[in-house]
Amino acid sequence: MLTEEQLLAAPEDEYMNEAQLAFFRQLLLTQAEELKVSLANAKEQLASFENEPDELDKASVEEERRMALRFLDRQTKLLPKIMESIKRIDEDDYGFCAVTGEPIGIKRLLLRPTATLCAEEKQRQELKERNYRDA
């Protein structure tokens, strides 16, 4: 199994070879398992919140519940993205921009293994969104 250092040091012409795909598959599988445990813990934590008679305690518990729900929502949305990334590995489509077909890049994939867009395309889309929001 490759290390991150070996991935980063690999020549460009070896981009998304079998060893690199195996590295990212394992990384994504590990993240999926960790996420499932995290989701179970967050659901358990939500279920354990009790109603507090004291107003100050009640406000504190409500804030904790709200934060736990936000966390749960974000994590729940991440799991399908991880599974989709694993599917792209299986289809030999992983690591390439869904819009331009250009390589996403090892550094970007190490930071965000579920990325489907290269940095340039992501910036273009964010700029469009900002322009629509500001208009």
UniProtKB/TrEMBL annotation:
Keywords, sorted A to Z: Coiled coil, Metal-binding, Zinc, Zinc-finger
KW Iron-sulfur (keyword) present: no
UniProt KW Ligase keyword: no
Pfam families in the record: DksA_N, zf-dskA_traR
PANTHER family linked to this entry: RNA POLYMERASE-BINDING TRANSCRIPTION FACTOR DKSA, RNA POLYMERASE-BINDING TRANSCRIPTION FACTOR DKSA-RELATED
Zinc fingers typed dksA C4-type, residue spans: 97-121
InterPro entries: DksA_N (IPR048489), DnaK_N (IPR037187), Znf_DskA_TraR (IPR000962)
Ranges where the DnaK suppressor protein DksA N-terminal domain occurs: 20-89
SUPFAM superfamilies named in the record: DnaK suppressor protein DksA, alpha-hairpin domain (SSF109635), Glucocorticoid receptor-like (DNA-binding domain) (SSF57716)
Name by which UniProt lists this protein: RNA polymerase-binding protein DksA
Ranges in coiled-coil conformation: 25-59
Domain Zinc finger DksA/TraR C4-type: 93-126
Source organism, top-level taxon: Bacteria
PROSITE patterns per record: ZF_DKSA_2
Gene Ontology molecular function, alphabetical: zinc ion binding
